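User: Hi! I'm a student and our assignment asks us to look at how structure tokens line up with a sequence. Could you show me two examples?

Assistant: Happy to help. In each example below, the sequence comes first and the structure tokens follow. Example one:
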Amino acid sequence: MSGTSSMIVAGLTAAALATVGFLGHQAAANVPPGLRHPSSGAAGAVRKALPAKEHPAALPVRSGTGKRVVYSLKRDRVWLVEKGDTVRRTFGVSPSTVDPAPGTYRVTSRSGAVTGSDGVPIEHVVRFTGVDGTAIGFSAAVDGSAPVLDPRERTGGIRETRADGVAMWKFATIGRTVVVVP
């Protein structure tokens, strides 16, 4: 009996596949001529709306040269850039209450694990400047949290995820260029 059931199921499956194939062929053969090729209409406009240079994750123009970290204040985004402007990794960050001025800096110090100015344990701290006594750098909260910003407190920790923190730690060694863009 199970052999008969299997044959019936196999036959019905084959018939269904043949029907779907036939209907697909019929649909393709009967496409109106105006729809056979992509037009320059809406789909073309979408492609043109986001050229590579304007894509939210695209490397900012005038962001330096060579192997570097690029930090965009406006986009709250970081790029780890190899020579030749090849982006190794890009990711969003949570900004601090104190921003560095746009410009070119160098990584000045690193700490494997410390407590942030907000009292949260952080790791993979990569510092590159200071503003009026507030150290500015990238870090990841050990618990994975984003900072709760109080504009009345001066903090310089630009928070990233733990995975992004590991990538930054490996890439941004002492002396590595950090370019801050608006």
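Example two works the same way, sequence first and then tokens:
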Amino acid sequence: MSTYTSPVPMPADDAEAPEVCREVYGMPTYLHVPTPDLAASADFWVRGLGFVDFYTLPGQVTHLRRWAFQDVLLVPGEPAAGTGTGTGTPATGIAFSCVLGQIEEIAEACEKLVPGCVSGPEEMLWNSVELTVVTPENTRVVMTAARPIEPGGPAETRLREAGFDFDLPDRSA
């Protein structure tokens, strides 16, 4: 059996984000986002959410990427309609991993580009910090950063009570 090395770093307060993956690979999953303005949407995803323009076929598609397996295809079309009656709640959503040090930076960049598009960050029961951004195309993007689990702390207790069995890294050194 082989061991897979994830592009997502182990949870730590000072975890470093990996570089943008510029390799060509078969994408196991990606988000398809219709937009009436490819350039404006790409600008928000790049300057706000930290993606890069992996490639663009003008007027047809913009392929954006952050880390390995964090791919978004912007295509011409109408944005996703909200659900419910007049709530404007995004119909489409996705979560992307990031590191703790990126949460505030992303929040500030997105808020500067589209005031009011950010909510959070919020500490979650499953030991992550999450920032929710609603993009100009009405896509809910959750940037989620795992927090380190403190031995004997409340997160370890909650997770173990929920049935998770895991070894914590030795941080005594």
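Here is something you could point out in your write-up. The helical segments are 38-47, 100-113, 154-161.
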